[in-house]
């Protein structure tokens, strides 16, 4: 029985969920043949065993489309019922048109407005928070929120400190009215641009347009200071996780399921330990997909639902952290 002083769910939440990952994947042994690394190092330091990789003809919008169609079917609506499409991605098909507009065309969501969010790994939760507010404001009914990435396209496959970490995939959710006693209770978004240099793709934008020199210097690939990022990630995830619980009058022990961004098993474990939640309530699939950035939380949610680990009435917390830096958390009743 939930006590009265606790904040009630808004009645707006996730009506349908879906995920898609490309069939092809790279194992740690595959990577051993590409760079100076080992299955043991990758497993011990990250928990990752394999990561999926888009086919050459697949771009981010193609992965997003597949996840979106599953989420729409799961919600029991048609693409033409969508009012808004929001895509969180750090790997758009191109600068513009937005990936959300490409998805809108692909799925035939002719009535939907569409836009992208750039918040790296926190993109899906940023989108979820915006979608909830849009629906609660009463102007829109059905909003598609997608997290989709083809990180393997922006990795330097000769840099062992980054190429072993990331994978491709997409997850999507339809946000709308889910009835009394269900839906989002609280959301929290944060960022710290002063730490933006810890994870970035330096060239190809207006600061450093693409030239032969930027290509030669491999500046169109992800650059990361992993160690500093690790510490910042744990701190930000713990703060974000605690914030929505405190704001709503809940304790971590009340949670039925914690789904964090899947970047590194050690970050997930350290976060879970610090917020004091029992191990079996923490969802982990980083071993299977690597870090799929904005796609990781909706992929995990879709998978948890499929496995029967995400059931009606459960108190669920979602927590993300990403480049920017950005972080976010969402507390909801499923
Ligand atoms: N294989 C073998 N050795 C490696 C590899 C590898 N793939 N990568 C690095 N090493 C070496 C390093 O060169 C270093 O060697 P040295 O001591 O001789 O210099 C040693 O391993 C230790 O390196 P560290 O960077 O200190 O290792 P650490 O324990 O910090 O693990 C890791 C590195 C896994 C990257 C970790 O720091 C991490 O997960 N950081 C967070 C990364 C992250 O979450 N990024 C995404 C943020 S979300 C987003 O927005 C996409």
Task: Describe the model.
Helix content is 33%, strand content 23%. It is of the alpha/beta class and 334 residues long. It folds into two domains: 12-180, Peroxisomal Thiolase, Chain A, domain 1 (3-Layer(aba) Sandwich); 184-333, Thiolase/Chalcone synthase (Peroxisomal Thiolase, Chain A, domain 1, 3-Layer(aba) Sandwich), CATH 3.40.47. It has a five-stranded mixed β-sheet with strand order 1-7-6-4-5, sandwiched between helices. α3 (60-75) packs across α4 (99-107) and α8 (226-248) packs parallel to α9 (265-275). The protein is globular, with a radius of gyration of 19 Å. The structure holds acetyl coenzyme *A. The site of acetyl coenzyme *A has 23 residues, from α2, α6 and α8.
Draw up the topology in text.
Blueprint: E1 12-20, E2 25-27, H1 28-32, H2 39-46, E3 50-52, H3 60-75, E4 84-88, H4 99-107, E5 113-117, H5 123-136, E6 143-150, H6 160-163, E7 168-177, E8 183-191, E9 199-200, H7 212-216, E10 223-224, H8 226-248, E11 257-260, H9 265-275, E12 282-283, H10 286-289, H11 296-306, E13 315-322, E14 326-333
Parallel strand pairs: 4-5, 4-6, 11-12, 11-13
Antiparallel strand pairs: 1-7, 2-3, 6-7, 8-14, 9-10, 13-14
The protein binds acetyl coenzyme *A.
What is the gist of this entry?
33% of the residues lie in helices and 23% in strands.
Low-confidence stretches: none
Strands ordered across the widest β-sheet = 1-7-6-4-5
Provide the number of structural domains: 2
Helix content bin: 25-40%
- List bound small molecules: acetyl coenzyme *A
Q: How much is the radius of gyration in Å?
A: 19 Å
Through-space gap between termini: 16 Å
Main beta sheet, described? 5 strands, mixed
From N to C, what is the helix and strand string? EEHHEHEHEHEHEEEHEHEHEHHEE
Report strand %: 15-25%
Q: What structural class do you assign from the helix and strand content?
A: alpha/beta
Any idea of the CATH class of the largest domain? Alpha Beta
- How many strand elements? 14
The backbone outline, from C-alpha atoms, is globular
In CATH terms, the superfamily of the largest domain is: Thiolase/Chalcone synthase
Tell me, rounded to a whole number, the average pLDDT.
Answer: 97
